Structure formats: structure tokens, C-alpha cells
Amino acid sequence: MHSSGATSRNVSAVAFAGKLALVKPNFAYCKQKSIKQTGLIFKIECGGRLVAVGEDAPDFTLETDQEKQVSLRDYRGKKVVLYFYPKDGTSGCTTEALEFKDVADQFAQEGAVILGISKDSVASHQKFKEKYQLPFTLLSDPESKVLNEYGVWKEKVLYGRKFMGTERTTFLIDEKGIIRKIYTKVKPEGHAQACLLDLTKEPMLFLPE
Questions:
Q1: For the segment 123-180, what is each residue's pLDDT rounded down to a tens digit?
Q2: Catalytic residue among 30, 46, 93, 195
């Protein structure tokens, strides 16, 4: 097994190796600064913070679109699709949300819940959810605490201007709270279906074809 320079940024946590078989998966995926290889362990460092496949998903507590406080640990016993997106109502974020809506029943049949997180306010989430009749929970992280915890609050460049923003990223988390898959730089179209297909795999890992 070896890594290559080919990337598939929106379909796998293993962006540098396509699909990767690990005996004990521990692939950290964050800002692409450096890669360390030790046996079958791959890590990408992100400002000293490591978010890795095979490790516990960082717990958090945020306010929902229903103005309730929920924690990730509240969903133990269920699979969780935790997706981070930039902003309510924008084109890409609407496409992503609607595609998750279209397959929400199928996720439920797999014992999975969908949680969307952005910096938007609770009021913004309420309007977004009501407008598109989204059947899943949206969480508000206005201070970017969870965004930073998961390494998705990153520097971006647009027309030569640098700014901080949310990198569209999704984490598949199993019933025990362990991260099983990470998608970075997600393209909205087809992403929900890709998550659903991966979620049905036992175990929830990519293996070489």
C-alpha cells in the first residue's frame, strides 16, 4: 500500500491515497500542511489539533434551531452524519441541505441522524429550515468554537483577499462516538448520496477495490 499525489477531495478522508485499508484506522484530516507516515497510520496536522478517523469525535454542546441545547453525546447509540457548511440560504448550502432532505428517511432506516452546523444564528437556521422544510437538526456555532475544534474554520482566498471561513466538511460518526469517515472540501452535488452509501458499509471504512 502506498500514497499518491492524486486527490479526490470530496469523497474520502483518504484524499492522498484514494481508498485506504487500515487495521487500526487513524487518519487525521485537517489543513494540508504535512503528512507523517508510520506503518499504517497517516496523520495531517492542523494547528496542533488532530481530528482523526478511528478516534473519538470531540464532544460539544450547541443550540438547535428549536432553541434547545444538545450535545453530541446525546446521540450515542446512533450513527451521526455531522456536516459543517458555510451559510444558510446560499446556493451550495441549499443544494447540500436539500439533497440530505431527499434521503433523510433512508438515513433514519440506517439508524443515523443528520446534524448540520454553521456560524449562522438560531433565527437564521429557523428561517432556512422552515423555507425548505428540512427534516433534520441545525446547530448554531456563532463563536466558531466547534468549527475550530473540528478543524474546519480555515483561511480562504478569494480574488486575492484572505479571510477566515468554514470549509465544507462532513464527519461520519458511529454509535460509539468514533469518527469513521471524513470528507473535506465537499462538493454539494451528490454528497448526501455518497454519505448514505458509505454509511451502509460494514465496517464503515474504505477498503481497496
A1: 999 999 999 999 999 999 999 999 999 999 998 888 888 989 999 999 999 999 999 9
A2: 93
Any domain includes 14:
no
- What would the DSSP string read from start to end of 171-201? EEE-TTSBEEEEE-S--STTHHHHHHHHHTS
On whether residue 15 sits in a domain, the answer given is no
Domain count across the chain: 1
pTM of the model: 0.76
Closest C-alpha to 180, from 193, 196, 207, 199: 199
Active site residue 30: no
pLDDT tens digit string along 28-64?
333 333 333 333 233 334 433 557 888 999 999 999 9
